[in-house]
Amino acid sequence: MQADLFDARITPERVLRALAAHCGASNGISARRLVRVLTGEESAAGERALRHVIEAMRTQGHRVCAHPSTGYFLAENDAELDATCEFLFARAMTSLRQIAGVKRVALPKLRGQLRLPIGGNDESEQ
């Protein structure tokens, strides 16, 4: 982990314990407040570390959801998880469109270069 993303107080275990009180979108907590709960202080570095830890947690299968309008929370149901997945997908597509633009490559061609299934039509499944 990069030095600026490391805070020994922000661990997956501690994040899960803190989020146990924030189940469902209606009970979300902002990154700033969650960092304060975990560390006792507010800091941009803490928020970066939190995002890094949550990314790792999601990769491991934890149902950590978030949206700018709700903050972080544990999914109470599949609909909340699906909404977070759609939000993350839209964000990823925005990044891919930017990459395609600066490289002056059509998005479908960039998709082929990255070998990413977009829209559920993975060519390897055909």
Structure characterization notes:
- By secondary structure, the protein is mainly alpha-helical.
- 53% of the residues lie in helices and 6% in strands.
- Strands 1-2 form a two-stranded antiparallel sheet.
- A hairpin with a 3-residue loop joins strand 1 and strand 2 (71-74).
- The longest helix is centred in the C-terminal third of the chain and has 26 residues, at 78-103.
- The radius of gyration is 17 Å and the shape is globular.
- The N and C termini lie far apart (38 Å).
- Mean pLDDT is 88; it is low at 122-126.
Structural descriptors:
single chain; 126 residues; mainly alpha; 2 strands; globular
SSE pattern, N- to C-terminal: HHHEEHH
Distance between the termini: 38 Å
Q: State the total count of DSSP E strands.
A: 2
Supply the helix-strand structural class: mainly alpha
Largest sheet: 2 strands, antiparallel
Number of helices: 5
Poorly predicted regions: 122-126
- The coarse silhouette is globular
Rounded radius of gyration (Å): 17 Å
Strand order in the sheet with the most strands: 1-2
Residue fraction in strands: 5-15%
Oligomer status: single chain
Mean pLDDT: 88
Short account of what is shown:
The protein is mainly alpha-helical.
Topology overview:
Elements: H1 12-19, H2 31-39, H3 44-59, E1 64-67, E2 71-74, H4 78-103, H5 107-114
